[in-house]
């Protein structure tokens, strides 16, 4: 399964590096024509980054799930971008993780994505 991602501060990039899965940064591709999972950060008060929304406008057809990074200090806004994307594009939230994720977050994500890939 392909992982498409965006990272502003490097936290999502570090999460992706720990996954050791096939991944592409959204700014490095204009179109994805295969199933993919999106991993993004959350900006502002729980918003989806504009660059991510622009990417999804042309690539949502192959989106099968979303995960997001956030900071628990934001309370209800923690990794809220995943919820917003999931609702708008009718895909499941795979996971939410703080900053660059823990080893448990990595393991959970890998298993969840493997489960999606099997279906």
Automatic annotation (TrEMBL):
Record Pfam families: Flavodoxin_NdrI
The cross-references to InterPro entries, in alphabetical order and at most eight, read: Flavoprotein-like_sf, RNR_NrdI
Q: Which domain of life is it from?
A: Bacteria
An example molecular function term from Gene Ontology annotations: FMN binding
Query: What stretches pass through the bilayer?
Result: none
Protein name according to UniProt: Protein NrdI
- Recite the lineage of the species: Bacteria, Bacillati, Bacillota, Bacilli, Bacillales
């Amino acid at each position: 399964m392909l992982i498409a991602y965006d990272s502003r501060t490097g936290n999502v990039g570090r999460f992706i590096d720990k996954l050791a899965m096939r991944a592409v940064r959204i700014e490095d591709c204009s179109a994805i024509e295969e199933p993919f999972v999106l991993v993004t950060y959350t900006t502002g008060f729980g918003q989806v980054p504009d660059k991510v929304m622009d990417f999804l406008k042309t690539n949502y057809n192959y989106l099968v799930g979303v995960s997001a990074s956030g900071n628990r200090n934001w309370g209800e806004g923690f990794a809220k971008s995943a919820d917003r994307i999931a609702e708008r594009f009718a895909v499941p939230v795979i996971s939410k993780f703080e900053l660059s994720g823990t080893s448990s977050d990595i393991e959970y994500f890998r298993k969840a994505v493997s489960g999606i890939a099997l279906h």
